[in-house]
Amino acid sequence: MQKKAIAVIMGGGRGSRLYPLTKERCKPAVPLAGKYRLVDIPISNCLNSGINNIYLLTQFNTASLHRHIQDTYRFDPFGGGTVDILSAEQTEKGDNWYQGTADAVRQNVHHFTALDYDHVIILSGDQLYRMDYGEILKEHIESEADVTVAAIPFPSDSVEGLGLMRVSDFLEITEFVEKPTDPEVIRSLELPESLEETLKTKSEKKRCLASMGIYVFNRETMIEALNNEMTDFGKEVIPSLLGASRLHAHIFEGYWEDIGTVKAFFEANLQLADPMPQFNFFSRGRPIYTRARYLPASKINRCSINHVIVGDGCIITDSYLRRCVIGIRSVLREGTRLENVVMMGADEFESSEGRRRNREKGIPDIGVGMNCEIKNAIIDKGARIGANVRLNPEGKPDMYEKDGIFLRDGVVVVTKNAIVPDNTIF
């Protein structure tokens, strides 16, 4: 069943809600949990589900994503399979950027025509969850659906920005509303008691079925559904199929987080440092794959550390860390205090000669200097923070941006390769 399915992962647009983390990279390439990238989540879900023909559609700032995919996902010629990046390209039919999720798939359908597949799974590249796609495929086939939409029960007072659906007792979708804002419309889509009682998870709040942006299409249904000018699956394609095709809902009751904003990204990372995180990277038998970097183990000297994830290749000395995610090759120097910080680390170790030349120019070493205090912040890769720096978003205006320091959603963001001089106070 899985061998007859291909997966198409949506790389997203400009990633404006995740800016400045997407200033120099596309959303799927944003680092996650100290050593991974966002794209590793859907790809790992595919591989753990027995699906190894995977296509990633993207168009903005793709260089780091290309490097990551090429260095990570290599298949032997006997097992087959591929992870291909399909960027927007000029063809005889047009030279437009992808106008939306449906348009992105439409522009690439010709790449799939020679493949032997029956089903297409459309996935998002910026979500954190673990799912066995074999289960949704099985349910899709057994229900004889043309399209299956993965849905998650969500509190009706927290569904802003999500597509909502009404389903029958047999989970056939009878109504689909993309991102409703009218409270009356949302209330009308709340789950009936009869369906609530069938769910494994219980809630005291009223809930709606929200689309996860995960779709299973029959091959011919997808081709027919894209034979038009519609640009987006949630806004146009799925609603247009109501009454014309059989739409089925697959209810997913595990952890799921849409990492579409700086705040969501920040909180999802810090939750991973909790004693019992909702998303568990330590799950046996269903690993999350990423690039094998062959880094040395981290060195932690004379530190006070609590609820912290530390990636490989780090050197942390005489520091105080509380609820932090410290990425690969991070360096923290004496007297530094970090609280609620996501630090992405560096792409390379800095050479002694490079440090000497930079110091002659007054440029700090990569990492965090001595006697710094940083709270509620994201430090992007390659950032250089000097000594005696103070960064804290409290009381500061949102949307601030200057000299590599941004403030988004109440979180300080030090941008990739930024230089923060000694004694900076923000």
Q: If you average the pLDDT, what whole number results?
A: 93
Q: What percent of the residues sit in helical stretches (DSSP H or I)?
A: 10-25%
Poorly predicted regions are none
The separation of the N and C termini measures 55 Å
> What is the H level of CATH, i.e. the homologous superfamily of the largest domain?
Spore Coat Polysaccharide Biosynthesis Protein SpsA, Chain A
Strand residue percentage? 25-35%
Task: Tell me the Rg in angstroms.
Answer: 23 Å
Number of domains: 2
Assembly state of the chains shown: single chain
What name is given to the CATH topology of the largest domain?
A: Spore Coat Polysaccharide Biosynthesis Protein SpsA, Chain A
Shape: globular
Q: How many extended strands?
A: 27
| CATH classification class of the largest domain | Alpha Beta
User: Which architecture of the largest domain does the CATH hierarchy give at level 2?
Assistant: Alpha-Beta Complex
Strand-pairing-aware structural class: alpha/beta
Characterize the largest beta sheet: strand count, sense, and whether it forms a barrel. 9 strands, mixed
Can you count the helices?
10
